[in-house]
Structures
1.
Amino acid sequence: MYNYLEEELDQLRTRIIKMSSLVEEQIEFAFRGLFEANLELANLVKERDDKVDKFDVKIDKHCQRIFALTQPVAVDLRLIMSALKINNDLERMGDIAVNIAERIEPLMNNIDLLKKVKIDDMSTLVQTIVKSSIDSFVNNDPELALEIIKLDNNVDEMDHQIFDLLINIMENDKTLIRPCSHAITLLRNIERLSDHATNIAEDVYFLTDAKIIKHRRDIEEIDNKQ
């Protein structure tokens, strides 16, 4: 029989999925605005951030209500715990989308610089990680979640390489110090975006397989058992 707890958990999942969709769109608009030098998209991302914040509050209160009115155990408890963490990561990803949008105006005349150091390639990879981490939650897919967790190492490598390139450019051309500084700020936000998406994938793996992944050795142990 369909009970109160099941109904509440279904509503919670639906809210997380709706917030995920909104955040994913915010990120897409932020990157499109960046590489198309589109200030209208930048403003749209900033204006819609309030919707992300409202979802954040609703989901937190929803989880509190479930804890207060029911006694969830096992997988139901894991869903609520994961929902709280995923909600926090989504809210931070929404903030990062705004941070990226704020870099659009100071970098709109330096798109060639961003492409030269391959920030566009890094942004494409991170968008894939974001989308796949959300898909892993929607589809309860631990295998996809695990693949996303592994991909974060690739982002870290790109981050280090691009940072070194930007430093080198600033050392050789003083006129590019300002745009390169904005590019470094952008780079840090893109890397953090990947970290939060990876956190979501880790929560999905916990939700589906009841296993916590926090370190490289955790992944190695899982691979050795497969």
2.
Amino acid sequence: MQVEIWSVGKENESFIDEGLKYYFQKTRPYNPVDLVLLQLPKKLATTDADKAKLLEEEMILKKLQPHHYLVLLDERGKLLTSPQWAQQFQQMMNMGTKTLVILIGGAFGVTDNIRRQARQVWSLSHLVFPHQLVRLMVAEQVYRAFSILNNSPYHHS
């Protein structure tokens, strides 16, 4: 199963890129993981929340394919433990999921249409984090999930 972390927003700071490379390299023996940045052209950038969400929706839907299993990250989503993430990944692999897409929406969230497209909605925390940090946290949790599934000593129950 391919794992793609889609994130609406700007390029990463160098320290975030370094952390992402670290976790993606550690995950590689188990499963490929990629980060896909979804950026609106500067001429379309707006502070109008509704307009921004619609423009981002269009960008996401153009990229979303039938073989994608979309999981939306949202502060109001279901809180899962790390072992539950691993369990979800195992279930997706058992179902024959070709590509798992974990979506980190834009600064204003996502449209109801994108929410409906998601097969699941997860939350990392009740706290709100900067998008770049969420990318790194998701990369670490993906690595942790695969280390759990492969009985690696990384995760200590």
3.
Amino acid sequence: MAQSTSARASDSAEAEQDGRSGRKRRAIIDEATALFLRNGYQGTSMDEVAARAAVSKQTVYKNFADKEKLFTEIIRGVADSSERILQELSEVLHTADVGADDLDDVLTELAQRYLSAVLQPRVMRLRRLVIAEADRFPELARYYYDKAPARAVKVLAGELRTYAERGLLRLDDATLAANHFAYLVLAIPQDRALFHPDEQPSTGDHDRIAREAVRVFLAAYRDPHS
């Protein structure tokens, strides 16, 4: 019995230690992310990360061997988290029983959600950061691109292909059509947001952009027999 009690106490102590270690690691990532976004890669030091996270510099290096590894884990984590957004976009298109009369509304809702997801200030700041450091971290920039923008187009292409199979759209190249849709929706507001970080488009602006993007897209890709 005494041995069992001791084992339970040891397990509890280990769990508590793991919890503290996890909280410290999370604090390091959160504070480093804020610093990278504000100061860039070159303008951020591991000393400052440790101070902001309220941990020792030794703890920072215990979790991340150097600044490059810390930066890489942050960007990869952000890229991996985009899967949830992609799932939400896919669900809009995957609505059952979408017919020719519903196509405008479904694609407009998709465009509006696409705009809301991509133009979030934090997302745009991260995108600026990745672009700024693309020469220093080309593989990381490629990873981010493949997991976020390119993955979104791939998901969209798959759903548009099913619409073509049901006679709603006429596509020769679903991936090209998905790129056309994405850029019709995002090109103007995203380009502006990259260079005007303090501006926030109104909901009315988003709605107008979304509807016009869908109108132009369907003028090119709607099946005339649907």
